[in-house]
Amino acid sequence: MLERLLLSCERLGIKKFYVQTTDESSVKPSLGRFANHPDVLIVSSFDELGKGPIPVDPSSPCLRIRGNLVLSTRQLESIIDDAERRGGVVTATSVDPERGGTISIGVLGELMRDDSTGSASAGLSRLLPFALNGRPKDREEAELRLAKSLREDTRDSDAAMARYVDRNLSWRISRRLAATSISANQVTLANTAVGLLASALFASTSYWLKLLASILFLFSITVDGVDGELARLTMTESKFGGRLDVITDNIVHVTLFAGIFWGCYRTSGSDWYLWLLPISLGGLLSCGVATWRAFQVSGEKAEQWIKKIDRLSGRDFAYLLVVLALFNRLSYFAWGTAFGTYVFAFVVLWATYKRFGSIEADA
Fold first, then answer.
1. pLDDT < 50: residue spans in the chain
2. Contacts of 303 (CB under 8 A, 6+ apart)
3. Does residue 167 share a domain with residue 127?
């Protein structure tokens, strides 16, 4: 747990760590990969800071953690952001019954002088950490709260159905997988297999197989969030995992549309659906370019805009596919996708340039 706390802090850019203990030998094993880290120092008292062999500038920004806290990187980031807005010393208290943990943020000198709770960090109850205090149910409760907090990581960028349905299922799956040896990348590959199977079934002429395909694809959309959640829950995020997720998602999208168009062609016998396939692929490429351009916008004012693009380019259309398959009207989706993708790409590009102009202007 101590290693996890240090890792969360490191990912948020904290460079120097001091661990207070009177028994160094008992703490060392808990540090994990940080046991021999040159920037992790064990001290018997924080009064040692700034004295003798441990020179520390009292004006340095500091984060002080007390108690056996279980929290996500996102929770810690939210508390830090809140402290930056308020200024001074800000303290967040854990939500366990004993309030057994605190996170205080401020200038080191002020934290050393003021050992009180500082100003409370209000309005963050759903994000505050949980502290283990020796009760039998502590660990289970902490893990539950940590898994639930995963929904906050993507709340602002998830589309409506993803936010209110998919995430409410996926965090439960992620929580249980975290107790196994299954990795996030394995979940990605397994989910890709489900998506490819759905694509193949869409190419069928059978009503029931197409309906099954839509349900499988909807299931894969829900599971698609599990790999990222599992990686964050176990703190095993990696660039490779992120790229693997993006690449496999795009592969599934291409095969999905190909399967739907081919299925419509086989069912109707109309050559139009063979023409719609390359038209649709061109539309998907246009959407990719438009979305990439939107993500190149820099600056704080662009943050909300990027989240809107994330929401618009989400995969809530999986629910529409189930409805259309249920009424045997997948041809509507084929025609709508073929030309709707170009409309989406144009609107995103136009809105991006209207709001932010060129990349050079943002830079």
1. 359-363
2. none
3. no
